[in-house]
Write a structure and sequence with these properties.
- It is built from three helices and seven strands; from the N terminus they run H-H-E-E-E-E-E-E-E-H.
- By secondary structure, the protein is of the alpha+beta class.
- The mean pLDDT is 87.
- It folds into two domains: 30 residues; 107 residues, PH-domain like (Roll).
Length: 140
């Protein structure tokens, strides 16, 4: 009976240790698209005047729902992810590094897919009806 009281807490500690190890590996990998974008397109400039907050975008295969600031000016695209548990540094992607590459669907809405980089290192998917001015700007 006494061994059962020792065995159950040991299993609990083991499971918690495995969960923490998995989170550590995921957080320290550093090989995801956001890290690549932060390395290639960092900025310290303030956001453009037309920046809109709480936007939903898809970067690669990750959907960032209601936590992205998005704006643009004649030089390029400003993007900052303010996720609930992580705030990333802002990005500024120059216009020559952006190209419209297709269309898709996100939450049953039409989207426009934008390739980032020459050659492309990531894709950005925007809801078309919410960002028609930005899409028209990039199409020119």
């Amino acid at each position: 009976m006494l061994s059962l009281f020792i065995f159950i807490p040991l299993i609990f500690i083991f499971v918690i240790a495995i969960i923490l190890l998995v989170f550590y590996i995921i957080r320290s990998s550093g090989h995801n698209l956001i890290d690549q974008l932060l390395k290639n397109y960092p900025t310290t400039n303030p956001a453009p005047d037309n920046t809109i907050s709480r936007q939903t975008v898809k970067i690669g295969s990750v959907i960032w729902k209601n936590c992205v600031e998005l704006g643009y000016n004649s030089e390029g695209l400003y993007l900052q992810i303010n996720a609930p548990l992580q705030k990333y540094s802002p990005l500024f992607i120059p216009k020559p590094q952006l190209s419209l590459t297709g269309h898709g669907k996100l939450y049953w809405q039409d989207t426009t897919i934008i390739s980032i980089g020459q050659p492309p290192i990531a894709t950005l998917e925007l809801i078309t009806q919410d960002h028609s001015q930005l899409i028209n700007f990039l199409a020119k």
